[in-house]
Amino acid sequence: MTTLELEVEALEPLALSEKHTVVLIDDEPAILSSLRRVFRSEPYEIRTTSSPEVALEWARTGVVSLVLLDQRMPEMCGTDLAAQLRRLSPRTVCVLLTAYPGNELVQHGLSRDVDWLVSKPWNDDALRLMVRRLLRGLERRPPSALEIDPKASSPALSKAVRRVAGALIKGTGWISGFLWMPDAGGNPRF
Question: 14: burial class by Cβ within 10 Å (0-12, 13-18, 19+)?
């Protein structure tokens, strides 16, 4: 993206085509208040809580597009919360907010369940733009065949989908292995 495109995008934020809910989770009331102020004029629903359990309940009972969560909370660390959210709602984007970005737990979470990392203190404009970009990316991402709503499907259907996906992978594995063999199709071109 050129500098001019970035400036235009910052002045005229990316439009969203779907209704989104963004959940802000932090145990410090002052941080939650600042985050509410940052997002007050954004075109999506904002929910705030200091309780990881409340956030999990919101993810269980409704569609949560993105969560912005603190790493260090008394009840549960952010990376553990992100892992639980990922199991409940695989499409939910998890953004970790931390004053300790080099922490080993944070690095582990980034490799598994955290999609993005934001350091404290943050830049308000950059934070708003980043959330818009992540939500736009979510809108463009087609649902995976393995992302089945547990409330809308039966255990038998979930098991059948996993069985079919496994069979497809096993059935095509030998083809891709054969095609990548150096002597199968001539000299590799990479």
Answer: middle
- Tokens 């075109």 sit on residue: 43
Q: What is the length of the chain? A: 190
Return d(Cα 37, Cα 41) in angstroms, integer: 8
pTM, full prediction: 0.65
Q: Could you report the per-residue pLDDT of 53-109, keeping only the tens digit for each?
A: 999 999 999 889 999 999 888 888 888 999 999 899 888 999 998 887 665 555 555
Strand 66-70 relative to strand 21-25, pairing: parallel
The answer to whether the beta carbons of residues 99 and 117 sit under 8 Å apart is no
The residues, ordered by sequence, that sit 6+ positions from 58 with a Cβ below 8 Å of its Cβ are 21, 23, 47, 49, 64
Hey, how many other C-beta atoms are within 10 angstroms of the C-beta on 22? 22
DSSP code for 17: -
pLDDT digits (tens, 9 = 90+) for 106-120: 555 556 788 888 888
| SS3 assignment, position 14 | coil
